[in-house]
Write a structure and sequence with these properties.
The chain is of the alpha/beta class. It has helices at 25-29, 33-37, 53-65, 99-102, 106-113, 131-139, 167-176, 184-195, 240-249, 253-271, 276-291, 295-311, 319-333, 338-354, 362-378; strands at 3-9, 42-48, 70-80, 87-89, 104-105, 121-129, 148-155. Strands 1, 2, 3, 4, 5, 6 and 7 form a seven-stranded mixed sheet that branches.
């Protein structure tokens, strides 16, 4: 099956740049796409010093929806936003003060990849950190989700002021230029040996029993198969996520939606509305509607997710609430049926008054689009 490769090299412009991320792209570009992907054929998307988090999200979302294996090569630097202490990948406009609005939240990566089949997604990362993010990562290692294989390194704060070289990724790309792609543990080991001779002992140790993760110089063997994303009822003997994924891949979107709705009803009975399990299955239904090409239904469901999270006591600026509002807005912008736009618009405007999110002007944009469609209807 054809693979997909997403190359992301991102770093701030100016004094905030810790790593010359884009310098490795020419070396990666010289590698055949099928070698980067580890598949007979592959398509490739490249993002060099992107400016806008939404641009990165759109490309990541499209890549996550593609069938077949997905390999993400991520080069850049990570920072914490000072308000919520959430980790972000810095983009071209990111500064220490604006990381919450101009950086790409790490948890967006895990959310976009969560419905992909376990083992079909690989992230190879060469990341650099400042003192604050390094300390946070030492206490809370990176996690890309139970079904995602994650290899690479997070470098500690550099002592020199000049941007560092992404030596791990350059070594990895140089190995792949030969046209040979060894298994991931060996590929990682070779990249560490060739690219990180100095200071390799400072690699951040990351461990997650659910999947291989960013690791120390000694490579870890692949871990046991990932566990389901949510606990299953006792005596069930099945993984609903695997069944739903299989239905989607076969084009049986109605069956997938029915399975998710059934598990949602079970969660409601067992745990009640507003519970983590019930909200999880609402989110799955919203994603399934998007996969099925129904942005109106997906938007409506994300609106319900945001409302459920707020009702359960989550703060309007919490990452999960903001993510639900952003997804609802994203899907609403893609609805082309005027009646659906007008029907869902008031709820979105009301939500944006409560949850403006990290992008500036979201409420005004929603109001303008709704007014435009009302004017067309009256005219």
């Amino acid at each position: 099956m054809p693979g997909t490769v997403l190359l992301i090299a991102a770093a701030p412009v100016g004094r905030g740049r810790l790593v010359d991320a884009a310098s490795v792209l020419p070396v990666l570009a010289a590698v055949p796409p099928e070698t980067l992907a580890g598949t007979p054929t592959a398509s490739i998307v490249e993002l060099a010093d992107p400016l806008d988090p939404q641009t990165v999200l759109t490309r990541l979302r499209a890549a996550a929806m593609a069938p077949g294996p997905l390999t993400i090569y991520l080069i850049g630097q990570v920072h914490l936003d000072r308000r919520q202490r959430q980790l972000h990948v810095a983009l071209a406009r990111t500064t220490t003060a604006t990381v919450r609005y101009t950086g790409f939240p790490w948890h967006w990566i895990t959310q976009e990849l969560r419905l992909r089949p376990a083992g079909s997604t690989t992230i190879l990362a060469d990341l650099h950190s400042d003192a604050e993010s390094w300390q946070a990562l030492t206490a809370h290692p990176l996690d890309a989700g139970p079904g995602v294989v994650l290899y690479g390194r997070v470098a500690p704060p550099a002592r020199r002021r000049t941007p560092a070289t992404p030596s791990y990724m350059k070594a990895l790309a140089t190995i792949l230029r030969s046209g040979h792609r060894p298994p991931l543990p060996q590929l990682h080991e070779h990249a560490v040996t060739q690219g990180l001779d100095e200071g390799a002992q400072d690699l951040l140790p990351v461990h997650d029993p659910g999947a291989p993760q960013l690791i120390t110089p000694a490579p870890l063997a692949p871990a046991a198969p990932p566990v389901p994303q949510r606990p299953l009822p006792a005596d069930s003997g099945m993984d609903p996520h695997a069944a739903i994924t299989a239905a989607v891949e076969a084009g049986r979107h109605g069956e997938a939606a029915a399975l998710a709705a059934s598990w949602e009803q079970s969660a409601l009975r067992m745990h009640g509305p507003g519970s983590k399990d019930a909200i999880h299955w609402m989110e799955v239904r919203a994603d399934l509607a998007r996969f099925a090409g129904d942005p109106a239904r997906s938007c409506e469901t994300w609106l319900a997710v945001a409302s459920a999270r707020l009702t359960s006591g989550q703060a309007p600026d919490s990452p999960d609430v903001e993510a639900a509002a952003d997804r609802a807005h994203h899907l609403w912008d893609r609805i082309r049926d005027p009646e659906a736009v007008r029907a869902l618009g008031p709820a979105l405007v009301s939500l944006r008054r409560q949850v403006p999110g990290r992008q500036r002007g979201t409420l005004l944009l929603a109001q303008r689009r709704l007014e435009q469609f009302h004017t067309q209807h009256v005219g």
